[in-house]
Amino acid sequence: MSEILSSLTEKFPDSITNTKVQRKTRIWVTVKIDVLIDVCEYLKNKQDFNHLSSVVGVDYKDRFEVVYHLWSYSKKRQLSLKVPLEKENPKVKTVTKIWRSANWHERETAELFGITFEEHPYPKHLLLADDFEGYPLRKDFKLVEKPWFDKNDASEKQKTD
């Protein structure tokens, strides 16, 4: 086990639910939602994971998951922190106070998966229109075809041309 995982499991013994060392420079850690902020602060301030490269959502049958991809330049290690969320009303606290780069990543994940990032400083849409209905990256999203124009209007226009 890596020194990073050893220190994490020692500091948060009941909160780390799964770990995997994919290779020397690639670590995966699953944590309980109630300690996310504490774990993130520890990783940034004590383990030097000072770069949040992305935040992504994952839609499983029974849950959602938010994955935070972190990088430590000094240790040359990547750590992906996974947090499982309830399928109904998925929500998690924002990490924007820890890594400012989380701002747009969390907004995009919220918009496309319907995951709420509590206390986010600016939870406005980034990609979709404000009146867009649904969450297009959820597995249950149904894409409904809408014609660009009314066919009846097009045939009437052809008659007058």
Number of domains: 1
Shape: elongated
Radius of gyration: 21 Å
Give the low-confidence spans.
none
Q: Report the count of strand segments.
A: 7
String of helices and strands = HEEHEEEEHEH
Query: Beta-strand percentage?
Result: 25-35%
Instruction: Please describe the biggest sheet, giving its number of strands, its sense, and whether it closes into a barrel.
Output: 5 strands, mixed
Mean pLDDT: 92
Helix content: 25-40%
Instruction: Compute the number of helices.
Output: 4
Distance between the termini: 75 Å
**What's the CATH topology label?**
Beta Polymerase, domain 2
Mind telling me which CATH architecture this is? 2-Layer Sandwich
Neighbour order of strands in the largest sheet: 1-2-5-4-3
Q: What is the CATH H-level superfamily? A: NADH:ubiquinone oxidoreductase Nqo5 subunit
Please give the CATH class.
Alpha Beta
Structural class: alpha/beta
How would you concisely characterize the structure shown here?
The chain is an alpha/beta fold.
Description:
The protein is an alpha/beta fold. The protein has one domain (3-160): NADH:ubiquinone oxidoreductase Nqo5 subunit (Beta Polymerase, domain 2). The chain has helices spanning 3-11, 36-45, 102-113, 151-160, and strands at 16-23, 26-31, 51-59, 63-72, 77-86, 91-93, 116-118. The strands form two sheets. The chain has a five-stranded mixed β-sheet with strand order 1-2-5-4-3, covered by helices on one side. A two-stranded parallel sheet has the order 6-7. Helix 3 (102-113) links the parallel strand 6 and strand 7. The radius of gyration is 21 Å and the shape is elongated.
